[in-house]
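Same chain as my last thread, 382 residues:
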Amino acid sequence: MLLSKGFEVEIYTGRTDGEIIGLADQITQSVSGFVREPDSRNVEYTTPPLQQYEQLLCELVTPRRRLRKFLHNLDPSYTLIPGSTLSTGNSKIFHRSDPNNPYHAYIENTYGTDVVTASIHINLGISDPEMLMRACRLIRAEAPLILALSASSPFLDHRITGYHSTRWHVFPQTPQHVPLFESHDHFIKWTEAQLQLGTMQNVRHLWSSVRPNGDHRPYNLNRIEIRISDLVTDPIHLLAITALIESRLLQLQQDPNLDPLISSQLPNHSRHDDLLEIITHNEQQAAKESLNAKLNHWKNGKPIKAADWITQIYDEVLPIAKAQGIACFLTPIKQIVREGNQAQNWLKQMESGMNVSHAIAQTIEVMERQEKAIQSDLCLPV
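reply #2:
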């Protein structure tokens, strides 16, 4: 049976020429379903948990169409901006969306604009807490592949940074050391200890690539939240990445030995630490070179190119996706691997002489065309 799935979508607002502008106050007061982030230049919306991909497609697109309509009424040049960093913005200044919020004050004072990013958090429902911990271990070990597929932040302040995901390169993962949780009890005790030590300000202040989530963390959990993904503005590509993750989780349900703590061939006495070292290295490499990154496989530590590893997993899970009726949503993974992610395509445009603003402006037009087509073909009118 398919898992329930939902997204938390953070997105910048600005003008059709790519300039990023803070409009969170006006949006959150006037458009239902949108909430403010600490910086006013981006807003967030959440889709409800659903099993069917066709419904998810509309839940991704419809709020954006409503927001676009509101922005256009404010000013015809206002729009939504692709990318996961302040590509055309000023990263030296924090634009507080809620000056009286003490948690936002803590974030600004501690991390500055390194947290003013836009991303997609992918949530998949898993009610059994031990299965959830197993899922977190596997997906965290393979999260660099999700980053490789989704990378969309090669720019900052109008310049090329040298990273395909500048967002993940600068984002402050907190606390600094997050173990592979061996059980639900381990997660509970670790979280309580972090809150006592002050390394976490609250239960939400766990900013790692993957985390267990639920209505009463760390005690009542019901989903895995994948936080490493850059903003994927193409809804078809986002569903493909989600289908790859879901198929992998369904494979894990069928074969619990996929758990890295069980099937890794790294030495027993140091397996946990070696796995964490490999994961950290792989995340850094994926942030730099995405699909071209040279990673180390968690099973044996051997080098493998990110694109090849993704293809390997794709081939493994395709029969599961076919059996569940979601293979058609999975297939765009091959296109991303073949043609490149958003960051790689932007960098190709840079090589042909285009500037950052022009590349962003072109993608703004593509985004709107995609949304219109999906809305008119599949969804109810806004």
